Amino acid sequence: MITVEPRQDRSAQRNDRGRAWAYDPDMPDTDSPHPTPPAVVIAGDIGATSSRIQVARAEGERGLLAEADGPGANLRSSGPQALDHLAQTVRRALADAAARLEVPPRIAAVALGVSGAGPSHAAQVRDLITGRLAELGIDPASVQVGDDLRTAFLSGGVGDDGILLLSGTGAVTVLFRGREGVARRDGMGWLLGDIGSAVWLGRRTLQAVAADLDQRGRRTVLTERVGEMLDLDLRAGRTPPSPTGDVRQDLIRALDELAPASSPAALGRFAPLPGTVPEDPAAREILDTATRHFTDTVRALDPQLTLPVVLAGSVLASPGPIHDEVVIGLEADGREHRTAASGLPGALLLAREAAAAAGTSGTEQR
Q1: Residues 163 and 326: beta-carbon distance below 8 Å
Q2: CB 345, CB 156: distance < 8 Å
Q3: What is the DSSP code string of 71-132?
Q4: What SS3 class is residue 191?
Q5: Distance CA 242, CA 232 (A)
Q6: d(Cα 256, Cα 251) in Å, to the nearest integer?
Q7: How far apart are CA 112 and CA 55, in angstroms?
Q8: Dihedrals φ, ψ of 332, to 5°?
Q9: Per-residue pLDDT tens digits for 83-138
Q10: Which of 116, 179, 177 has the alpha carbon at shortest distance from 145?
């Protein structure tokens, strides 16, 4: 069951001219020269670690009005204030758009790609999000809430058929036909899978360090790297002096503070470490396991090697050993591949299509 804490008060935002704008859908537009407010769409790429919202004109390639970044809002792994964070980010983006237009806009359609909104929780996530957005004056009927997989795939621009290989906070491979996901591998969450994800990489890194410290695993440079991140001497406990007298307990204590059980996404902070020391045997094993898994899952979903692949998520859309080695494998198979740095282009495409289908993409309501 997904639970959330009561929402917090929201303060007014200021545009770059210093004027205060607290987005209010009922704000009178007596100073506006427009007979009706301009129509806009809202697109969202809502991850477990971070979120990004865009407000754009309902039509036109160059219609971006505002963009706002905020904390992650996966209702399963981003903590109990996920809905508050999402609402605050949307409100901020709308306030900036209103400041630019000098009138509160009319929201024609909303499309959000939300991490954690897969089939097992889709209805509940949609109800919670649309309920909260309704408090901003957004009609629930105008809101599309889906998982972030379709928006990520569409952002790659390879057409309606292909494969999404995504590794961010979580990891999944999806086969798309006609924009619909028809088969998938993994995406089962950090407890059951998400192999190669940032959380998986971080957890495997910490497990290697724990095995090193406990003398039940190989010695690894990752221990020093993790110690540097935590400002601890995990090798000897001398500088600074060990707070517990046992470097293993120092690690446990530090992780309890940094990554409590309610926020597993925080483990992703350690994900880049294996890529910084690829020559280390423990790091190399982690990198090879992730790369092999990604290559194998793509081939399993398309053994004919005919479909294009969209790489997405922080692990695969960023330069590094895993991205580079996966690309080498795709090119060896003769596959077309694109990288989608964000799911926003796909979400914006869906929002504008919805606005056009509803006949509300014009600047005046008729």
Answers
A1: no
A2: no
A3: E---TTTS-TTHHHHHHHHHHHHHHHHHHHHTSPPEEEEEEEEETT-STTTHHHHHHHHHHH
A4: coil
A5: 8
A6: 9
A7: 12
A8: -65, -30
A9: 888 889 999 999 999 999 888 889 999 999 988 777 767 788 888 888 888 988 89
A10: 116
DSSP notation for 19-67: -EE---TT---TT-SSSSPPEEEEEEEE-SSEEEEEEEESS-TT-EEEE
Place of tokens 């790297």: 225
Sign of the Cα pseudo-torsion (156, 267, 278, 232, in order): positive
Query: What is the Cα Rg of the chain in Å?
Result: 23
User: How many residues in the chain?
Assistant: 366
Take residue 321 and report the two structure tokens written for it: 């050993």
Q: Which residue has the tokens 């506006």?
A: 32
DSSP string of 192-208, one letter each residue: T--TTSHHHHHHHHHHH
Strands 162-167 and 309-312: parallel
Give the C-alpha separation, 117 to 123, whole Å: 8
Judge if the upstream peptide bond of residue 240 is cis by omega within 30 degrees of 0.
Answer: yes
State the CB neighbour count (10 A cutoff) for residue 218. 11
Instruction: Look at the block and give the residue holding tokens 């077309």.
Output: 336
Q: What is the spatial distance between Cα 332 and Cα 329, in angstroms, rounded to a whole number?
A: 5
Does residue 171 contact residue 195 with C-beta atoms inside 8 Å? yes
For 144, phi and psi rounded to 5 degrees?
A: -100, 120
Nearest-5° angle of CA 145, CA 149, CA 154? 95
User: pLDDT tens for residues 215-260?
Assistant: 999 999 999 999 999 989 999 888 888 888 899 999 999 898 887 7
| Residue from 315, 301, 305, 326 nearest 272 by CA | 315
Note the Cα 50 to chain centre separation in Å: 6
**Helical packing angle, 198-213 and 222-230, nearest 10°:** 110
Nearest to 186 by CA among 264, 51, 301, 272: 301
What's at 34, amino acid-wise? H
